[in-house]
Fold this sequence. Notes:
- The protein is of the alpha/beta class.
- It has two domains: 9-67 and 332-445, Aspartate Aminotransferase, domain 1; 69-330, Type I PLP-dependent aspartate aminotransferase-like (Major domain) (Aspartate Aminotransferase, domain 2, 3-Layer(aba) Sandwich), CATH 3.40.640.
- The chain contains 13 helices and 16 strands.
- Strand 1 and strand 2 form a beta hairpin.
- Helix 3 (69-81) packs antiparallel against helix 10 (315-330), helix 4 runs parallel beside helix 10 and helix 12 runs antiparallel to helix 13.
- The two termini are 38 Å apart.
- It binds pyridoxal-5'-phosphate.
- Residues 59, 117-119, 122, 145-147, 216, 220-221, 249, 251-252, 277 line the site of pyridoxal-5'-phosphate (PLP).
- Belongs to the class-III pyridoxal-phosphate-dependent aminotransferase family.
Amino acid sequence: MLDATTLSETEEVLQDNFDSTVFVWSKQKGISPIAVKYAKGVYLYDYDDKRYIDFSSGLMNVNIGHGNQRITEAVVRQMQEVSYVTPYCVTKVRGELGKKLAEICPGDLNKAYFTLCGATSNEAAIKMARSYTGRHKILSRYQSYHGATYGALSVGGDPRKLPDDSQQAPNFVHFDIPYPYRWNHDRESMLSDSIAQLERIIGYEGPGNIAAIMLEGESGTSGCLQYPEGYLKAVRDICDKYGILLIMDEVLSGFGRTGKWFGFENHGIVPDMVTMAKGITSGYLPFGCLMVTDKIAAHYNDRILATGMTYNAHPVSCAAALENIKIYEDENLLENAAQMGQYVTEQAELMKQKHPSIGDFRTTGLLGCFEIVKNRTTKEPMAPFNATPDQMAVMAKVGAKIKELGMYTFVRWSYVFVAPPLCVTKEQIDEGLAIISEALKIADEYV
Ligand code: PLP
């Protein structure tokens, strides 16, 4: 233990946290969080005023950027008016938010059920899909993430859950989706192979047992795998053929992250249910939502759905969400995400020429990542999926360098994420990419 008298304020905050709190998704030993004192725009500052550019928008949720006073004011106004009501009462802001969400959602996705976060939105979707269809199985893909509660973790195909596999809930079945960079197929055969596999699995599991297919609106923390053109349309057709509901999880890809309100809008489909969180309040308060069609909502006109929590439709979170959505519109953040996504792609192409360790860069709007490889020809990843700490040695060094140089972002397996707040400027992108470029010199030595 360090001597308290020699600690800087940042070190003191870290020490208190290490002494008294538990960290998850990582071993307690060796973790190295940033002690954040304040945050503004795309920057975080620690207690010694060291600045970090936030290239992952927190957990890909702070879409409007940090420290926006409009949200603070909306929250204070709501707190002064009414700070809490039970889910059996309603507030003006709840209704206004429901209407606004119906306006930005396509098709008949007009009814909002407000939750607490992404996982609870997905739990509600799973429960509602089962109760609506009278079927019990939920299909989803490997290499996906849908949250950390019991059902949401089970439906996700993230391999980090495997050590706790015995704790998975039953009746979740996984399938493969195309990974264009790694599947050496042309687009047509990639589509036909993956759709044929999905249809075979539906056959094995019994179409009459399958309530829903749940997919991320665009692949996120598993490596921004990107659906090939036509893939989601083919899944939509399969759902229609077998009477299976299509649930799009827009928790991470929603609210402008991909340059549209929702990721699925890049693929010309309309799902039956959409789950949301993160960007709905840009992380200013915990909140989530399940949007369903009029038809699904009407099913509950004379039935109950046994779900709901004390803090459902919390009025203060509703107020934050409503103001946040206005900010996306007033500041043209969807357009900026699309334009900056283009710019990042061009710059990443130039970086590829300098760094032999960059195998691929892919982004949809500002949901992107570099994929780092040992060998561009064989595409051997610098760290395999679900790497052990030993296998992460090089990527851990890259991550540490990124942090040292003043950036906060995710380095997971062989991916370095590029997902800054949607208000990011070209100059800030240059600043962030220069840091990643410097850190990738470490990876280049292992090629
Ligand atoms: N769904 C997706 C696609 C996510 O990326 C996440 C979180 O990263 C979740 C659901 C879970 O959201 P939450 O952590 O708010 O429960």
